[in-house]
Write a structure and sequence with these properties.
Elements (H helix, E strand, L loop, with lengths): L9 E10 L5 E6 L4 E5 L5 E4 L2 E2 L10 E9 L2 E10 L11 H10 L3
Parallel strand pairs: 3-7, 4-7
Antiparallel strand pairs: 1-2, 1-6, 2-3, 4-5, 6-7
């Protein structure tokens, strides 16, 4: 398995680019820009922050770490663990802008 380091599995860290409507395929784009279409089957373990979820609950832009094996031309997911980036209100000031206001005496 990915977590135990067995050699017959490959791994990818990246961001979800697409999730099929049926939740059976998740496309992960790695840092180098390569797209990995991972097939989710009944043996795949899909988690979000290490809590088990149906694959269809993963979303575009979730950060993932996945392991997979090749079955013919398909990349079959063994483990897909997602992390959802923190949502930020676009109208609220960023921590850096608050810090600069404080240091300038504007608060």
């Amino acid at each position: 398995c990915f977590w135990c380091g067995e050699a017959d599995f490959e791994k990818v860290d990246g961001v979800i680019d697409a999730v099929a409507a049926d939740g059976r395929t998740v496309t992960v784009t790695s840092v180098d820009g390569k797209r990995h279409p991972l097939v989710i089957d009944d043996k795949s373990e899909v988690t979000l922050s290490l809590e088990r979820i149906p694959a269809g609950e993963l979303r575009k832009f979730d950060e993932v770490r996945a392991s997979y094996s090749k079955r013919g031309e398909e990349l079959v997911a063994t483990v897909v663990d997602g992390r959802r980036p923190a949502q930020r209100d676009p109208l609220s000031p960023s921590p850096n802008s608050v810090r600069s206001l404080r240091s300038s005496g504007a608060t």
